[in-house]
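Q: what does this look like with magnesium ion bound?
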Amino acid sequence: MKIICIGRNFVDHIHELQNEIPTDPVVFIKPDSALLRNNNPFFIPDFSKEIHHEVELVVKIKKIGKSIPLQFSRDYYDEIALGIDFTARDLQSELKAKGLPWEKAKGFDHSAVISNFMSIEGLDLSNLNFSLHKNGQVVQSGNTQQMIHNIDTIISYVSQFFTLKIGDYIFTGTPAGVGAVAPNDLLEGFIESNSMFRFYVK
Ligand code: MG
């Protein structure tokens, strides 16, 4: 199983980090040891003083595929979840400044939170709201309409480079409002009005 992530997919988030709008999707990978599930607490790692939450929709791949034509992307998934792409922003900034890969800042243990999955049947994936609440306050909210590259485009694009296998996960990018987490924060994520995850930072 691999975890493929898309960066810089919401314009308002690109602006808040003062990045450039990319022409092609920005792609990176987290290892399977990054997974955190079942509302288990997230422990802030020692190597960072600035762990940011990035709430994102996550797609689960249900069929093996390579170089998938856009019009067939829809055959490769039928469930979505909500996730957090935890990012050691201080470390990422250092690595970016040196032109080095981001893996340590993005792929560390338990940096990929994924909720239970729900069927996409009956959902309008082109107009779906999702949000993250921290200690009861909304800190991030997005709608799939704001995505530069939609789920089908992402699947077609990444499958040119990586064979997609059953059970792979794709994080599809975060909207604006990323920010630091602190011990005892309670993070709760919603797709529309469905509570998808609820866990504590330690
Ligand atoms: Mg992200």
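The mean pLDDT is 97. Residues 5, 7, 54, 56, 85, 171, 173-174 surround magnesium ion (CB under 6 Å).
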